[in-house]
Amino acid sequence: MTLTKRLAAEFLGTLWLVLGGCGSAVLAANFGGDGNPLGIGLLGVSLAFGLTVLTGAFALGHISGGHFNPAVSLGLWAGGRFSAKDLAPYVVAQVLGAIAAGFILLQIARGGGGFSIDPTAAGTFATNGYGVLSPGGYTLAAAFLCEVVLTAFFLVVIMGATHGKASAAFAPIAIGLALTLIHLISIPVTNTSVNPARSTGVAVFAGSGALGQLWLFWVAPLVGGALGGIVYAWLRPNNE
Q1: Residue 81, φ and ψ in degrees, nearest 5
Q2: How far apart are alpha carbons 18 and 71 in whole angstroms?
Q3: Burial, 64: exposed, middle or buried (Cβ in 10 Å; 0-12, 13-18, 19+)?
Q4: 134: CATH
Q5: Is 112 exposed, middle or buried (0-12, 13-18, 19+ CB in 10 A)?
Q6: Binning pLDDT at 50, 70 and 90, where does residue 167 land?
Q7: Is residue 165 pLDDT above 90, yes or no?
Q8: What is the signed CA dihedral for 18, 44, 108, 197, rounded to 10 degrees?
């Protein structure tokens, strides 16, 4: 598969992830107001993120590997599963896909009544944050630790599920469920990133608050991704 097609697949897959996951948070989480049974809430948003990865991996994984996340690409490189020369192009494609999704989501959201972006509000436009911009008011240290640990485990799941001795047909299911679980744990803490592209794609439209804290949602997932890749490579027997 040519690099151009692989990058196109990463662009589309990341667009789908951000549009589906962040779109569910912006458009459907509180549909009808608090307490309305039509709103999907935290559980629904968690499932939406997991489903975007699951469906995207089934559709595009055989073309590009289905990373859709700079932390995943870095972690796979750290674990010996991905070429260093393709790392920067993958990250660029992923970030562009996420920003395209953020732009599309913004146009859709503006078509509804009462939509606004408050740059001082936690989770505005599905952004990530810590301190006053954390949904639960969690500190920078708590947010950093949460993102590092959960991204590291996400990489362990990804590398284990896609190992040659694992069932390839079930890999997207395991990965999608892992991302669902990660969101169930960490939406109250950071609104869940574990993906620098996902964070960037909405932050660029949300104002100074989210942009000012975006650094953490690059540094922590990248550190966690690299740690997860290294740990799995160490766990794996030398002859595998």
Answers
A1: -110, 0
A2: 15
A3: buried
A4: 1.20.1080.10
A5: exposed
A6: confident
A7: no
A8: -10
Largest Cα–Cα distance in the chain?
59
Closest CA to 222 of 232, 230, 211: 230
Identify whether 226 is part of a domain.
yes
Query: Side chain identity at 219, as an amino acid letter?
Result: V
Beta carbons of 119 and 206 less than 8 angstroms apart: yes
Tokens matching residue 39: 């709103």
Q: Is residue 186 part of a domain?
A: yes
Domain that holds residue 149: 3-235
Joined tokens for residue 101: 């999704």
CA nearest 208: which of 141, 105, 120? 120
Q: How many structural domains are present in the chain?
A: 1
Q: What is the pLDDT of residues 177-197, one digit of tens each?
A: 999 999 999 999 999 999 999
Q: Kindly tell me if the per-residue pLDDT of 60 is higher than 80.
A: yes
Q: Give the side-chain half-sphere CA count within 13 A for 7.
A: 14
Question: Which residue, 148, 113, 142, is CA-closest to 225?
Answer: 148
Asked if residue 240 is part of any domain, the answer here is no
Question: What mean pLDDT is reported for the chain?
Answer: 95
pLDDT at position 240? 58
Q: Determine, yes or no, domain membership for 222.
A: yes
For residues 52 and 68, what is the distance between their CA atoms, to the nearest angstrom? 10
Q: Does residue 57 carry a pLDDT above 60? A: yes
What is the length of the chain? 240
pTM: 0.95
